[in-house]
Amino acid sequence: MTPAATTFHVPHRASQRRVTGEPPFVRRALIGVALVFLSLFLFIPLISVFAQAFAKGVGFYFHTLNDPMAWSAIKLTLYAAAIAVPLNCVFGVCAAWAIAKFDFRGKNILLTLIDLPFSVSPVIAGLIYVLVFGAQGWLGLYMNADNPKFPWLANWLNDHNFKIIFAVPGIVLATIFVTFPFVARELIPLMQAQGRNEEEAARVLGASGWQTFWRVTLPNIKWGLIYGVILCNARAMGEFGAVSVVSGKIRGQTNTIPLHIEALYDDYNFTGAFAVASLLALLALVTLGIKTWVEHQQAKQEQTEIVQ
Amino acid sequence: MANERIKARKIRVLPGFKLTLGFTLFYLGLIVLIPLAAVFWKATSLTWPQFWHTITMPTAMASYRLTFGASLLAALVNAFFGLIVAWVLVRYNFFGKKIIDALVDLPFALPTAVAGITLATLYSKNGWIGHWLEPLGIKVANTQIGIFIALTFIGLPFIVRTVQPILEDLDPELEEAASSLGANRWQVFWRVIFPMLTPALLTGFALAFARALGEYGSVIFIAGNIPMKTQITPVIIMGELDMFDYGKATAIAVVMLVFSFVLLLTINVLQWWTNRYNTNNLA
C-alpha cells in the first residue's frame, strides 16, 4: 500500500531475516513437532488405508470391488452425487448472484441460513427427513394406510411403490442437505469481492442478461465454481451419518459406498472394508490435488489482473 | 418517493434479481428450513414432562458430558498444534512443504466412515499404533480416548486454515519495531503476534468444536457403543431411531440443535471480529 515499502524492498527483507527469525534449534524443534503431529493424525492413517486394502493381495482387492453389492453401492453413490451436486451448483450460482450483485434487507440473515446445514449434526440431517417423509412423520400423517387424508395420492404412491424413507429418494435428499452450502459459500465472497462494475459495463454496451452471465461473470468465477463443486462432490460421495439414518441399509439396494464399508466392517471383513474405503481415499486425494491446482490457477488469474 | 426511485434504478441495471432470490429462498425453504421445522413440530407432540424426562435421562446426560468434554479437549489440542503447523507452513521452508500443506485438508476430504475404520484399526490392540500403547497400559479403542482421537482428526484443518491467512498477511514492520525496541523473540510472539492471531484462533477453535459436537461417522467405529461410557449424543439419537422411538430421538435432537445454533451465532460474531481486525491492519 505504501510506496516507500517497494523502494526499500531488498534491504527491508534482509533486515527482517536477521531481526525477526527464530534461532535454528527453535525452528527445527517446531518443524519437528508439526511433522510428528501431522504424521500421527494424517500420514499414518492415510498410508494405513492402502496398506490394509492390499493386506490380502491384489486378487482379493479386485475380488471385493467386483462384488455385485459393491457395484450397486458405487452406482447408488454416483447417482446421488449426480443429482445433488448439479442442484446445489445451480442454487449456489443463484444465491451468489442475488447476494453479491444486489442490495436488499436481511442479507446477513440469509447468509447465516445458507450456512445452517454445516452446523447440523449429520444424524439430525437424516432425522429431519424421516420426520417429514417417514411413516410417523408429516407425510405419513396424510398417507396413513387406514385413514388417508388424500386417498387418491396414497393410492397412487402405493401403486407405484413410491417410498422416500428407506429408499433412494431419501438418500438423495439427505445428500443434498449435507452438501447444500458448499458452492454458495465459495462463490458468495468471490463475487462480492469482484463487485458489479464489469457486469454493468456489459449491460450498458448492449449485452443481454444471459450474455453478461456467460461471457463476463462465468469466466470470472470459473475457478471458484470448480473449487466449490469438487468439495461438494467429495462430501456427497462420502456422506455417512445422514445417509445411514434414511437408507434402511438394504444391501444391494439402498447401500451407498460408505454404508457398504460399514457393512463389510461389521461382518469382520476388514480387508474388504478397506479395499472399498481405498476408493474413497483415492477420491479424497484426487479432490485435494484438483483443489491445490485450482488454488494455483486462481492465484495466477489474480496476478494477471493486477498486472493489467 | 425519491428513495424508492433510486432503489428501482439500481436494481434494473442487472437482471435476474427476482428470479435468483426467489429460487434461493424456495430451495432454502424446501431443503433446509421446512425439514428443520419438522424437528420442532415433532417435539411439540411430547408433553413438557415427557420432553424433560427424555433429555435428562442418565444415558443422555452422560452423552452430553462426553460429547462436550471430548470435543472441547480435541479443539484445544488442535488449537495448540494447529497454531504450530500454521506457523511452520507460513514461516519456514522444508522438504515436502507443499504436499504437506495440501494434505492438511485431508480430514475435510476423507469420508468420515473411512476415517472411522482407519483410526479404529490403527489404535486397536494389534494396530500399527495400538500395539505400542498396549504394553504401556493405554487402551484407545472402545474408550473415551478413542473418541478424543477421532475428534482431533476431524478438527485438525479448521485452526490451521483460519490462522494461516492471517499469519501470511502479518506486517513484518510490527515485529521489527518490537525487536528494535528491545523485545526478545518470545516477547515479540507473545505480546505482538499472538494478540493479532487471537480472533482467528478463537474462530478456528469454535469451528472445530462445532464440527466435533455433531460428528458421527469417524467416532462410532473407535468408540465401541458402551452405554454411559462411550456413547456420544448422535449415537443416542441413532439408538432411539433404531427402536423407532422418534419422539425421544427428536427431543435429544432439539437439545443438540439449540447448542449448534448458539455456537453458530458465536462463530458469526467471532468471524466479524476477525475480519474487522484484518481491515484495521490493512488501513
Please give a quick description of this structure.
By secondary structure, chain A is mainly alpha-helical.
Describe the structure.
The complex is a heterodimer of chains A (308) and B (283). Chain A is mostly helical and 308 residues long. Chain A has two domains: 1-53, no CATH class; 57-307, MetI-like fold (Orthogonal Bundle). Chain A is built from 16 helices and no strands. Chain A has helices at residues 3-7, 9-19, 24-53, 57-65, 68-101, 107-115, 122-133, 138-143, 151-159, 168-178, 182-194, 197-204, 209-238, 241-247, 257-266, 270-307. In chain A, α7 (122-133) runs parallel beside α14, α11 packs antiparallel against α13 and α12 (197-204) packs antiparallel against α13. The radius of gyration of chain A is 25 Å and the shape is flat. The relative contact order of chain A is 0.12. Mean pLDDT of chain A is 87; it is low at 1-17. By secondary structure, chain B is mainly alpha-helical. Chain B folds into two domains: 1-32, no CATH class; 46-282, MetI-like (MetI-like fold, Orthogonal Bundle), CATH 1.10.3720.10. Chain B is built from 14 helices and no strands. Chain B has helices spanning 2-12, 17-43, 48-55, 58-91, 97-103, 106-109, 112-122, 130-133, 144-169, 172-180, 185-214, 217-223, 233-242, 246-282. The radius of gyration of chain B is 24 Å and the shape is globular. The two termini of chain B are 37 Å apart. The chains are: A mainly alpha (308), B mainly alpha (283).
Question: How do the helices and strands line up, and which of them pair or pack?
Answer:
The complex is a heterodimer of chains A (about 300) and B (about 280).
Chain A: H1 3-7, H2 9-19, H3 24-53, H4 57-65, H5 68-101, H6 107-115, H7 122-133, H8 138-143, H9 151-159, H10 168-178, H11 182-194, H12 197-204, H13 209-238, H14 241-247, H15 257-266, H16 270-307
Chain B: H1 2-12, H2 17-43, H3 48-55, H4 58-91, H5 97-103, H6 106-109, H7 112-122, H8 130-133, H9 144-169, H10 172-180, H11 185-214, H12 217-223, H13 233-242, H14 246-282
Helix pairs in contact in B: 2-14, 3-14, 4-9, 4-11, 7-9, 7-12, 9-11, 9-12, 10-11, 11-14, 13-14
